[in-house]
Design a protein that fits this description.
The structure holds two protein chains of two kinds. By secondary structure, chain A is mostly beta strands. Chain A contains no helices and eleven strands. The chains are: A mainly beta, B mainly beta.
């Protein structure tokens, strides 16, 4: 079974803090993704990566950055947290090279609250 | 208009009922179709993955794709309280780099 592990289930931070969300997958997948999920808005793609040290912007990258130094690990960084970044953050991974159309496998999410 | 439309519900059915969940889409380039189940406070879990029109069955679950109508369905037979969750449809266009398009999810409750 594919295992995508997010380091924290719940996180509370203060406005202006730099926040790191970590994600690790154990299936040697090339592709990794970060989403946020909000009621009524569904899943929105923040950033994704097809390979180590590669990253591409998704639909809502503003206020976020990412890091992929190793194939199995993909980090999401909130440079200066704001209250509108309170959300459920989901990490996902999928196999195959770019364009191979394989299903994504998700972690259990990090519920982040910014006070 | 969103590329993928999904009725958010909520949908409430008695145990044992047949459940029909649906998504419509506007982009004829979508070629791969998925259904995910998401329990409260958990991540989405892949249920079904299909390519092309037709039916695919897995136990009590049947995924149906009608490309001519741009319509996909998930049927759950003999529904159980453990099926209570949010169901998300997802689609991928052909050869565009694995970027997914998700529905917003339908909340289902199966009442014992």
């Amino acid at each position: 079974d594919v295992k995508v592990t997010q380091s924290s289930r719940y996180l509370v931070k203060r406005t202006g803090e730099k926040v790191f969300l970590e994600c690790v997958q154990d299936m040697d997948h090339e592709n990794m993704f970060w989403y946020r999920q909000d009621p009524g808005l569904g899943l929105r793609l923040i950033y994704f990566s097809y390979d180590v040290k590669m990253k591409e912007k998704g639909d809502i990258p503003e206020g976020y950055s990412v890091s992929r130094e190793k194939k199995e690990r993909f980090s999401l960084i909130l440079e200066s947290a704001s209250t509108n970044q309170t959300s459920m953050y989901l990490c996902a991974s999928s196999p195959g090279r770019r364009g191979r159309n394989q299903p994504q496998h998700f972690g259990d999410g990090t519920r982040l609250s910014i006070l | 208009q969103k590329e993928v439309e999904q009725d958010p519900g909520p949908l409430s059915v008695p145990e044992g009922a047949i459940v029909s969940l649906n998504c419509t889409y506007s982009n004829s380039a979508f070629q791969y179709f998925m259904w995910y189940r998401q329990y409260s406070r958990k991540g989405p879990e892949l249920l079904m993955y299909t390519y092309s029109s037709g039916n695919k069955e897995d136990g009590r679950f049947t995924a149906q794709v009608d490309k001519s109508s741009k319509y996909i369905s998930l049927f759950i037979r003999d529904s159980q309280p453990s099926d209570s969750a949010t169901y998300l449809c997802a689609m991928i266009p052909l050869n565009t780099g694995n970027q997914f398009y998700f529905g917003t999810g339908t909340s289902l409750t199966v009442i014992p």
